[in-house]
Amino acid sequence: TDAEFIHPSILNADFLEIGSELDRISAADSVHVDIMDGHFVPNLSFGVDMVSQIVRHGPIPVDAHLMIEDADRNAPAYAEAGADSVTFHLEAASAPIRLARELRAKSTRAGVALRPATPVDSLLDVIGEFDMLLIMTVEPGFGGQSFLESMLPKIRRARKAISASHLEVSIQVDGGVNRETIERCSEAGANVFVAGSAIYRAQDAAEEIGTLRSLASG
Ligand code: DX5
Ligand code: ZN
Q: Which residues does the record give as a divalent metal cation binding sites (predicted)?
């Protein structure tokens, strides 16, 4: 792929200092905001008002990752809040194509996410309906978990199918992405890299973003 994008996840940021935590990652391409409802995943994080405020803080685009039930009903509000991309879980949507079209009509990019145990294959027939495919490389719910190596063949298969259909769909990886794992994700065909603990636990977040970017571009 021609361009790599680094999206720090603020799940591991200091929530009492969110403004300066956003400023720490100004060298990144987007901020990844993990929305969790305590039902789809066993954790609770932010909601639509947090997304509006981060958008207002700017200038970094917001990549909203919705780990919430009933995506069909709940996702459009995140597009209206000004997110640059809205990614919902396939497992939480009953009409994913209709929802992607609704999000795109609100001039947001539409992403579809898969938990590790959800197969990608049937989705590949309709992948042109989406701007981004998020292949989770941990079970969603928490930051700081270790990368699932078994997701690499899934990334590779998805990239092969997308290239064969001459589509320009991004492949995002999320979970356990760091200096040790990012190159393998990139080689397999991912081009959007979420990193939470790797960036927020670094002494110098800007430098870590630069290191990850150069490892990803090989
Ligand atoms: C997990 C979230 C991730 C998480 C990544 O459910 O979707 O975005 O914050 O954190 P790290 O990079 O620490 O695995
Ligand atoms: Zn995420």
A: 32, 34, 65, 174
